[in-house]
Design goal:
two-stranded antiparallel sheet; Serine Threonine Protein Phosphatase 5, Tetratricopeptide repeat; 18 helices; elongated
């Protein structure tokens, strides 16, 4: 399902306070969250805060704010739109939630027949219901209004992916980034599609484009390193994984992949053990980390540590057959 993000306009309020010494008063600047606390029943502020939550993918928070703003003023179209968008995006949404959001979007369009965002949001509800023809119908309505509207092509790509038409999905996402060359999520989506298809050179280029827009994105940095790993450029992959770890020290998968490269591609067992242990420090329940650590100890001839490692893997996943088979071989 396509997540629709709406960029809020952050409003700052400036209040003057007297210094009492004849000097000009100093401005006191309040951010949006502070203003909402000061004026908790301001629908305008609540809508801006809710859209801010949507932008940050904080859908549960957006729903709470959206529901409150809509209760306060059921005639406010922006409040209705926020409420419906949040309801349509929460992870726990039900079939009834999607239908409810759909009804709200239709009401928004009746009042604002040129609201392109509302049309795309409405299309997304039909996508979730498996009614792709209806979804495309509303997408095409938007493209009649604006043939260059980025989000229409995003929604098309989402539909084509769901329908298994990968070439058309790729074409749609490529059109989206053509309309908006700074569209980070579009580059990332294309990169993951090419990764799934095993086209790692193309994936690498799109991950690089994403990283150029957001240099500290762990998703983009991981994709860059993983692409290099899959292309057999292990030295570069290790370097790029280390760059990722510097950006996010908790990213244990980067450490696991370095361990994998050291173990299976560079035959450096001691280094592999070090990186697996480092990954486990960050995620003790990493079953694959424990399993590969056991393999490394087994290859070094340390039966005791190998069995302990396989036992840990089975502790966290009793159905992990590979660890059970390896442990049985050692007994």
């Amino acid at each position: 399902m396509q997540k629709l993000i709406f960029l809020p306009v952050l409003v700052l309020a400036v209040f003057l306070t007297s210094c009492g010494d004849g000097k000009p008063p100093k401005p006191v600047v309040y951010d949006l969250d502070s203003l909402v606390k000061m004026y908790p029943d301001s629908v305008e502020l609540l809508v801006k805060q809710g859209n801010k939550f949507l932008e940050a993918y904080m859908y549960e928070d957006a729903l709470k704010v959206g529901a409150k703003s809509f209760r306060l003023d059921t005639n406010n179209i922006e409040a209705r739109f926020l409420y419906a968008n949040a309801m349509n995006n929460i992870a726990t949404r039900t079939i009834a939630d999607v239908q409810n959001a759909q009804d709200h979007f239709k009401k928004v369009i009746r009042v604002q027949p040129k609201n392109k965002k509302a049309y795309i949001a409405l299309a997304s509800t039909f996508t979730q219901q498996g009614e792709f023809e209806r979804s495309f119908q509303y997408i095409n309505e938007v493209l009649k209004m604006d043939p260059r509207y980025r989000d229409a092509y995003i929604m098309k790509g989402t539909n084509y992916l769901a329908l298994g038409k990968r070439d058309l999905a790729i074409s749609s996402y490529e059109t989206a980034v053509q309309q908006d060359p700074k569209f980070f999520e579009g580059y990332l989506q294309l990169a993951w599609i090419f990764t799934e298809d095993g086209k790692y050179e193309l994936a690498y280029e799109y991950f690089r484009n994403a990283a150029d827009i957001r240099p500290k994105s762990v998703d983009a940095l991981y994709g860059i390193a993983y692409s290099k790993q899959m292309l057999g450029d292990y030295e570069t992959a290790v370097r790029d994984y280390k760059t990722l770890i510097q950006a996010d020290t908790s990213y244990y998968l980067a450490l696991f992949n370095i361990g994998y490269i050291k173990q299976f591609d560079q035959n450096q067992l001691d280094s592999a053990i070090y990186y697996y242990q480092s990954a486990i420090e960050r995620e003790p329940q990493c079953v694959k980390c424990w399993h590969n650590l056991g393999l490394a100890y087994k290859e070094k001839g340390d039966k005791t540590m190998a069995l302990k490692s396989f036992a840990k893997a089975l502790k966290y996943n009793p159905d992990f057959k590979m660890s059970r088979q390896e442990a049985d071989k050692l007994r």
